[in-house]
Amino acid sequence: MQAATEISIPSPSVLPPSLLIVSLPKSGTVYLNAALGRNLGLEHMMVCSGYFPSDHLSFDRLDTFVSRGGYIAASHIDPNPANLQLLQALLPRWVVHFRDPRASLLSWVHHVRRLYQEGRVVDLLRFAPVPPEPVLTGDIEQCIDWHIGTFFKQAIDWANDG
């Protein structure tokens, strides 16, 4: 009987290019990042600060993201002049993923209320403006109404500016 021969697959000498996905909050961003990262063998990297509606790319992180390759990042960066300048200089191709802002609105309302109910009030500071407590604890209709005037308007502006 012959012994089985081991086959070793050489690892690639060059990592695949990094992939940046830009999306509106509550558009499946976390799911897309995890699924694509796992299936493409890309490591997650934060390239921005994580705020909405105004988020900024980090020059140093984006430079590493592009120059090393092998990373995936999903964020909610807005198309402000600084972000666009960095992207045009360092990463001229990226993916923008859109979800109907009306569907995002309902997911957003549940997300924000859940954060508050779980005591994760500090996490709410990533969003501007932070909903007042009566909106977070009141009936769902009141919360939806408040977010139509804030998050929904910001979501439409975010999509139109892109």
Short description:
This protein is an alpha/beta fold.
Number of domains: 2
- So how many helices? 6
Outline, from the CA principal axes? globular
Helix/strand order: EHEHEHEHHH
Whole-number mean pLDDT:
89
Model regions low in confidence, pLDDT < 50 over at least 5 residues: none
Q: Tally of extended strands?
A: 4
Proportion of helical residues: 40-55%
Protein structure class: alpha/beta
- End-to-end separation in angstroms reads 65 Å
Q: What topology, given as strand order, has the largest sheet?
A: 2-3-1-4
Structure description:
The chain has 162 residues and is α/β, with parallel strands linked by helices. It has 2 domains: 19-97, no CATH class; 101-161, no CATH class. It has helices at residues 29-40, 59-68, 81-90, 101-117, 133-137, 140-161; strands spanning 19-23, 43-44, 71-75, 95-97. The protein has a 4-stranded parallel beta sheet, sandwiched between helices. β2 (43-44), α2 (59-68) and β3 (71-75) form a beta-alpha-beta unit. α4 (101-117) packs across α6. The longest helix is centred in the C-terminal third of the chain and has 22 residues, at 140-161. The radius of gyration is 20 Å and the shape is globular. The termini are far apart.
